[in-house]
From TrEMBL:
Keywords: Cell cycle, Cell division, Coiled coil, Cytoplasm, Septation
Location in or out of the cell: Cytoplasm
Gene Ontology terms describing biological process: division septum assembly; FtsZ-dependent cytokinesis; septin ring assembly
Subunit structure: Homodimer. Interacts with FtsZ.
Recorded superkingdom: Bacteria
Similarity comment: Belongs to the ZapA family. Type 1 subfamily.
Protein name: Cell division protein ZapA
Function description: Activator of cell division through the inhibition of FtsZ GTPase activity, therefore promoting FtsZ assembly into bundles of protofilaments necessary for the formation of the division Z ring. It is recruited early at mid-cell but it is not essential for cell division.
Pfam family, one: ZapA
Gene Ontology cellular component annotations, sorted alphabetically: cell division site; cell septum; cytosol
Length: 99
């Protein structure tokens, strides 16, 4: 498939439109991701401390990545706690006298 026939989706970031090659079954995810990124970029832009679309995009990417890594860490911690609780419950069942 050449570039002329490749399916595309238009997204908007900070008021600029971009045409992105994207399979039709991934378009909803791409559009949702673009809206999320645009909101993050708009928030940084509104604070006025960062100038230039490229710098705003980098700051948004760093913030989103940080949030993602924190969520992964929290999930791992929750999984560890759940595993420990499961082990304690299994041990309690083993230690419980049978009637």
């Amino acid at each position: 498939m050449n570039d002329a026939t490749r399916p595309t989706t238009e997204i908007t970031l900070l008021g600029h439109s971009y045409i992105i090659a994207c399979p039709p079954d991934e378009q909803d995810k791409l559009e949702r991701s673009a809206r999320y990124l645009d909101r993050a970029m708009q928030g940084i832009h509104a604070r006025g401390k960062v100038l230039g679309a490229e710098r705003i995009a980098i700051m948004a990417a760093l913030n989103i990545t940080n949030d993602y890594l924190e969520a992964l860490e929290a999930q791992r911690s929750d999984e560890q706690q759940l595993s420990q609780l499961s082990k304690r419950l299994e041990q309690a069942l083993v230690d419980t006298p049978q009637r």
